[in-house]
Design a protein that fits this description.
Distance between the termini: 58 Å
Strand content: 5-15%
Number of domains: 2
Strand order of the largest sheet: 1-2
Helix content: 25-40%
Largest sheet: 2 strands, antiparallel
Radius of gyration: 21 Å
Shape: elongated
Length: about 100
């Protein structure tokens, strides 16, 4: 394939990738604090810009974490409608404080 002018490379395993010098030099793994389990490594953005710092802002939301915000601010549900969805067990909140 190389002789034919095609770009080729070894397919690496996940373990090989996360321990590679490329991942380390590009800061593709970032440590963040998880509220329940402490420090965890997460994938950082591979994109780099000249005048903008590329850094991990946080973890993905937990299951149901943004339900209320999405339903009220984007879909214009009332508090009563949202409460009814929780009461009917249509919605779930990981914290169960909704």
């Amino acid at each position: 394939m190389c002789k034919a002018g095609l770009g080729v490379s070894k397919v690496r395993s996940i373990v090989e990738v996360i321990h590679s010098s490329q991942v380390e030099s590009r800061s593709l793994l970032a440590e963040v604090n998880h509220p329940k389990i402490g420090k965890v490594k997460s994938i950082n953005s591979p994109l780099r810009f000249l005048e903008t710092e590329s850094k991990l802002r946080g973890l993905s939301p937990e299951l149901g974490e943004n339900n209320r915000e999405i339903l009220s601010k984007i879909l214009h549900y009332t508090d009563e409608q949202i409460e009814n969805l929780y009461h009917e067990k249509i919605l779930f909140s990981g914290s169960q404080n909704q």
